[in-house]
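Repro:
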Amino acid sequence: MKKIEAVIPEERLESVFEALLNSGASGFSYFTVKGRGSRARPVVSSGRGGRFESAYNVNSCIMVVVPDNLVSKVVDTITSHASTGMAGEGKIFIYNVDDAIDIGTKKHGEASI
């Protein structure tokens, strides 16, 4: 099994979610993250009419655990739905997962995902 973490622009989240549901991934989690990379940071309006460049980009981090045979399909799904072809759109990290346990059913390994 592999854990895939993808940091993508927040505005691409819904598109990636829909595509992941159709890719065979049984479930996934996400959270909002802030960070800095090569992508331009947004210009934000202040309360008194001023404008300034934000210190960070707001992104989403998606986490999904899949069997080894689905890794390339899930990665292709994320890249095709999160990318516009510009630099700085995010990163994907892939980790080995030794075991997973479903708390409710007590199943281990791939049966738990």
